[in-house]
Write a structure and sequence with these properties.
- Chains A, B: This is Formate--tetrahydrofolate ligase.
- Chains A, B: Pathway: One-carbon metabolism; tetrahydrofolate interconversion.
- 2 copies of one chain form a homodimer.
- Chain A is built from 20 helices and 26 strands.
- The first copy, chain A, is an alpha/beta fold.
- The first copy, chain A, folds into 3 domains: 308 residues, P-loop containing nucleotide triphosphate hydrolases (Rossmann fold, 3-Layer(aba) Sandwich); 132 residues, Domain 2, N(10)-formyltetrahydrofolate synthetase, CATH 3.30.1510; 87 residues, Formyltetrahydrofolate synthetase, domain 3.
- In chain A, the strands form 7 sheets. In chain A, strands 1, 2, 3, 4, 5, 6, 14, 15, 16, 17, 18 and 19 form a 12-stranded mixed sheet that branches.
- In chain A, a hairpin with a 4-residue loop joins strand 12 and strand 13.
- In chain A, 60% of the residues are buried.
- Chains A and B meet through helix 6, helix 7, strand 9, helix 9 and helix 10 of A and helix 6, helix 7, strand 9, helix 9 and helix 10 of B.
Chain lengths: 579, 579
């Protein structure tokens, strides 16, 4: 089979103006970025007759290091729907540069189910992530500069500047700095060293851009005005009295918004089969909600009959956050859920298989092993029940691999159907959309079954429930655990958040994606666990409170043999080494 | 008069496809970025009949805090040439985001001589600076990751990875990190703190993106292949034996080049009068050469009869580096030099006027003061002689201000002519191209007088002169000083550079732009000085050695009342506060 970059290059790519014309987009709302990409202006939402398309969410079983092919299936399903004659747009998160150069060497799907041009998708795209970094770091610089000038000018600060003192507490600055890179050396740093003109020394850190609250804000904002208001609400630091200092108070919210004005527009691209794709935002799926943007979904629903979007990790993570955070804020509802599973991934979820990085795959994964697969199917069944809890039909997409036996495939399909889901094979990686028509048909049937969305029925908890009760509900109903175990710090933080009037926000739990619990070694369907909650953090701009169950890596590192070593230009100036 | 942003918004902007069509650009070489900007592929250099235009370099008298309007005059001259019926393209450096939010609130010219859309020019443009930051920081992360993994794995490193040890000396890492922001707190930092999995602790620093060697490399590269080769030569660190470690050895040069592939293409824009502009790169004019890119100049010379380009600071700085670094590497030559002067700027160069930030301007600058102006004219005469040294005709552009008297204007024009220059008033700020036709006519006449360029005659020194002799020649002939005063460190570094075979490179002196000497308080035409040279730094990728005469600010800070406070979106979503 050809390499990803070879397939990408030989796929006939429509001029983006033609792609937009087919979607009925007025050129006034299209800002071309080269010949094959364009920024789409959300202003078009007010124009023309909306299609009011069906929204299909793609989630997955508990992920494994093997990779279940969720992005490939998302792209393949969109192409499969096209093959059936349905108008369809996929909405995807933008890949981060960090993993491209660190581990993966690319993240635009794979095989015959890719977004093209894959080089653009993997490298900068239209600059949104860099714009987020710039806006984020402007706020950080503004904060440190204000701290510095207030200290340097002392009593004279207000007389000299006409500004009120903010009295920023350097020990309680809540806003890190950010870069879209894997750089472990920036995880813990000291800034402001050098001398009395070089700032105020303090401990600081960098997070990767996907972990910036601005990324979550961009993904959740309804429009430019909402973006501006959310940025104004961001709490950057506490003052000496422990009161929050917002971006509005620092007078930096307007400039941050201006830096994000173009980034608020999703990027129109296409798949290897010319199915339109909107790429926009890429928030983490642990400390943030792990979904592409509200604006992209709304634009796509306006322009097509089917919109296929993808959420991060398994259904306990990105799907739960899709319903309880994204849909709650956007007012949108899903018409169907697709759960991606693989035979290998289910075996790895059985608890019987020991995957060791760098070692050959265990025999069970390379040949038929029905007993192990049977155990693993419990995980699939759990995710089906979990998704059905939100009142939507579920379709299992079984992503077929060459090592799968017919009996194994049949076992998974039967287990899915027995649990109340539709089920179909997907072979998009090797066959493109033609390999996903069976899946597409199942999705169309599922969407026809949907009752009209009824808002609150697609939520685990109402806004009015206090934060602690929301956390407990999420663990009991969303993870299948026994409840929460709050640290003393978390208890104090919950009381403070409640007192400050933030109880109405949804919660976002950051836990391992590799288990339904907080413990990655608990495979399958653990139930006998209490989820330890160490601390809580308010994201006033994004509009949720996230809870940490343990350390979360917000700045990855480069491994010993990083992917960048093989990325280069060849003799003709073409890029090599992305996949 | 209208504000800059109002003038920008009401200027009729041609679709970039039409602008390109007028220049005879094949659409295959044009990558639209929105409707009013496009990336221009250097591949077009091999296509069609080149115009072999005349190259006009815009420099200035010794700059003052008043601002002499060099960018306004550059844009105005290009528009003035258009008014005369000549085809003309201006090539400009891209503004840095740092000063936009720090001091100026914008840097795209001003009044009726602006690049439009000015919001795009001032904010991200097409993302080149962010791409440079990303490529720069990838190398920094790669360096720290390799240091970390070699230490962590110890003797097992090679057995585990198959890679030879680089033995990076953490105390001699030559490559900082970079961001396009004014952030004093990042000037001196400690990275790698936190714990044994979070990198190797060491002192580090951030520089602003314009100070990255990659910025100078982008500005000097001939094409993608040359870019790749230059990046490979960058010396990132020394090993434990004091030997250089290059980006090639770290295997990161290919990935860095890939990140810069689109940034290598200049951005086509236009002025308020639809004169084409190529915006590309923006290296510092102290530790780098302070000129826009070789590729942009070559593309513009291919497409137009006149190309107007701008160099940083006064003729002792950007102009000297234009001839001795940029032209030496590119093989291009200038046909004429324009020196921008103002009555106020010359008075401020007299040594008789004391400008205090935040205080009202001295009376001499607000009313006629011929004796002070007479003293200041010596600075203009020096710059004329300095520019004529390179064998090109000189035209003084006297940028008129409302406070200038007729007698003052006449005195400057007469002094310029007496020193062997053409001279003309420029009123581009208030009148656009119509205010610069007299200047444009003088430039056309000057270009007609030019003898064919003769390469070495436009250099102060030959390649073959040793580095120390180049420095001495530059100070004696380029600054009018008595010679150089080398620190012990500088002597040792010169000996080491010579021994390592770098004597063939040109030199780049980083000194204050506010005096011809290294001492900003020596106004007018100081001659009795020796230039102290503290240290030397090899830029093996950019292809020069820079000399520090004192501390150079490579990371600016935000002031007490930064410009970002007034930048915002208004009710209709338009940007306000840029100027």
């Amino acid at each position: 089979m050809l390499s990803d970059i070879e397939i990408s290059r030989q796929s006939p790519c429509l001029p983006v103006t033609l792609l937009a014309e087919r979607l009925g987009i007025d050129p006034a709302h299209l800002s071309p970025q080269g010949h094959h990409m364009a920024k789409l202006d959300p202003a078009l939402l007010g124009q023309g007759k909306p299609r009011a398309g069906k929204l299909v969410l793609v989630s997955a079983i508990t992920p494994t290091p093997l990779g279940e092919g969720k992005t490939v299936t998302t792209i393949g399903l969109a192409m499969g729907l096209n093959k059936l004659g349905e108008s369809c747009i996929a909405t995807l998160r933008q890949p981060s540069l960090g993993p491209v150069f660190g581990v993966k060497g690319g993240a635009a799907g794979g095989g015959f189910a890719q977004v093209v041009p894959m080089e653009a998708m993997n490298l900068h795209l239209t600059g949104d992530f860099h714009a987020i970094s710039a806006a984020h770091n402007l706020a950080a610089a503004a904060l440190d500069a204000r701290l510095f000038h207030e200290r340097r000018l002392g009593d004279q600060f207000t007389a000299t500047t006409g500004l009120a003192r903010l009295e920023i507490d350097p020990a309680r600055i809540l806003w890190p700095r950010t870069l879209d890179i894997n750089d472990r050396a920036l995880r813990h740093i000291t800034v402001g060293l050098g001398g009395e003109l070089d700032g105020v020394p303090r401990a600081d850190s960098f997070v990767i851009t996907a972990a910036s609250e601005l990324m979550a804000i961009l993904a959740l904002a309804r429009d430019l005005r909402d973006l501006r208001a959310r940025i104004g609400r961001i709490q950057l630091a506490l003052n000496d009295q422990g009161e929050p200092i917002t971006a509005e108070q620092l007078e930096v919210a307007g400039a941050m918004t201006v830096l994000l004005k173009e980034a608020l527009k999703p990027t129109l691209m296409q798949t290897t089969e010319q199915t339109p794709v909107l790429v926009h935002a890429g928030p983490f799926a642990n400390i943030a909600h792990g979904n592409s943007s509200v604006i992209a979904d709304r634009l796509a629903l306006h322009l097509a009959d089917y919109v296929v979007t993808e959420a991060g990790f398994g259904s306990d993570m990105g799907l739960e956050k899709f319903f309880n955070i994204k849909c709650r804020q956007s007012g949108l509802a899903a018409d169907a859920v697709v759960l991606v599973a693989t035979v290998r991934g289910l075996k790895a979820n059985s608890g019987q298989v020991n995957l060791i990085p760098g070692q050959p795959l265990p025999a069970s994964l390379q040949q038929e092993d029905l007993p192990t697969l049977q155990l693993g199917c419990a995980n699939l069944v759990w995710h089906i029940h979990n998704a059905r809890r939100y009142g939507v039909p579920v379709v299992v997409a079984l992503n077929r691999f060459p090592s799968d036996s017919e009996a194994e495939l049949e076992m998974v399909l039967a287990a899915a159907r027995a649990a109340g889901a539709e089920a179909a094979l997907s072979q998009a990686f090797t066959q493109g959309g033609a390999g996903a028509t069976e899946l597409a048909r199942a999705v169309v049937m599922a969407c026809q079954r949907t009752k009209p969305p009824v808002g609150e029925s697609q939520r685990l908890y109402p806004d009015t429930l206090p934060l602690a009760a929301k956390l407990a509900t999420l663990v009991e109903c969303g993870y299948g655990g026994r409840g929460i175990l709050l640290s003393e710090q978390a208890k104090a933080q919950l009381a403070a958040l409640s007192a400050a009037g933030w109880d109405h926000l949804p919660v976002c739990i950051a836990k391992t994606p590799l288990s339904l619990s907080h413990n990655p070694s608990l495979k399958g369907v653990p139930t006998d666990f209490e989820l330890p909650i160490r601390s809580l953090t308010l994201c006033a701009g994004a509009g949720f409170v996230y809870a940490l169950t343990g350390p979360v890596m917000t700045m990855p590192g480069l491994g010993t043999l990083p992917a960048y070593r093989h990325i280069d230009i060849d003799e003709s100036g073409d890029i090599v080494g992305l996949s």
